[in-house]
Design brief:
The protein has 182 residues and is an alpha+beta fold. 40% of the residues lie in helices and 17% in strands. The chain has a domain at 1-70. The radius of gyration is 20 Å and the shape is globular. The structure holds flavin-adenine dinucleotide. The site of flavin-adenine dinucleotide has 21 residues, from helix 2 and strand 3. InterPro entries: FAD-dep_OxRdtase (IPR006076), FAD/NAD-bd_sf (IPR036188). It holds the Pfam family DAO.
Length: 182
C-alpha cells in the first residue's frame, strides 16, 4: 500500500471545487487581495460583507496553496505556545492573541452555517508531548491556559493510553476545536 503521495488529501477527495477565469482585462476595485487561500478568502469575504468592492488575485488555482495541505483541524493553539508569546510580548497580549483565535472558531462555525453544505463539526484536540523532554514546557503551557480560563484538561500517560490507545508522557486535551471540510 502506498502510504505517501505527492498530492494533498483534499485535492484527491474533493478535486478542484471552484475554477475562476483568468484576469484578462483591467478591473477597477477598492481593494485587491493577493492570494486565494484561506487567509485571502476570509479577508475578501469580510471586506465584501462590509460593502467594499474586492478583487482576489490568485496566480494558481484558488485554494491550491498550503490551504489544500491542511489536516482540516481548527484549533485556537497557534504554533507558538502561550508561555513563549507571554515571554516575548507580555502575558496580557499572549492571552488576548489566544482568545482571538478561540473566538475565530465560533466565527468560522457561523460562516460555515451561512455558506451551507459545509462539513463543520466541533472536535476535541489532543496536544501531546512526544517525549519526556517536552513534558515540562507542555505542562507549563497547560497551567497558563487554565489560569486564564481556557477549557483544557491535563492527561496523564494512563489517561492517554486508555482514551486514545497510544503512549505519551502527557497531553493537553481541549474541547475547543473543530474540523472543517468544504
Ligand atoms: C501539511 C500541512 C498541514 C496543516 N494542517 C493544518 C491544520 O490542521 N489546521 C490549520 O489550521 N492549519 C494547518 N496548516 C496550516 C494552514 O494550511 C495554513 O496556515 C493556511 O492554509 C495558510 O493559508 P494562506 O491563505 O495564508 O496561504 P495559502 O493557502 O498558501 O494561500 C496563499 C495563496 O497565495 C497565492 N499567491 C502567493 N503569491 C502570489 C502572488 N504574487 N500573486 C498571486 N497569488 C499569489 C498562492 O498561490 C496561494 O494560493 C497546515 C499546513 C500544512 C502545510
Amino acid at each position: 500500500m502506498d502510504l505517501k503521495s505527492g498530492y494533498p488529501y483534499w485535492a484527491i477527495k474533493n478535486g478542484l471545487m471552484q475554477a475562476f477565469p483568468k484576469l484578462d482585462r483591467d478591473v477597477t476595485c477598492e481593494v485587491v487581495v493577493i492570494g486565494g487561500g484561506i487567509t485571502g478568502a476570509l479577508i475578501a469575504d469580510e471586506l465584501a460583507q462590509n460593502g467594499h468592492e474586492v478583487t482576489v488575485l490568485e496566480r494558481r488555482d484558488v485554494g491550491w496553496g498550503s490551504s489544500a495541505a491542511s489536516t482540516a483541524l481548527i484549533q485556537y493553539e497557534i504554533d507558538t505556545h502561550m508561555t513563549d508569546l507571554a515571554a516575548r510580548f507580555g502575558e496580557a497580549d499572549a492571552v488576548s492573541a489566544y482568545r482571538a483565535c478561540a473566538q475565530a472558531i465560533d466565527a468560522l462555525e457561523g460562516l460555515a452555517d451561512a455558506v451551507g453544505d459545509v462539513d463543520f463539526a466541533r472536535q476535541a484536540s489532543l496536544y501531546y508531548a512526544s517525549d519526556e523532554g517536552d513534558l515540562d514546557s507542555l505542562r507549563r503551557e497547560w497551567e497558563m491556559r487554565r489560569q486564564h480560563d481556557f477549557d483544557a484538561d491535563w492527561l496523564t500517560p494512563e489517561a492517554i493510553a486508555s482514551r486514545f490507545g497510544f503512549e505519551a508522557p502527557g497531553a493537553i486535551l481541549t474541547p475547543q476545536a473543530a474540523r472543517l471540510d468544504r
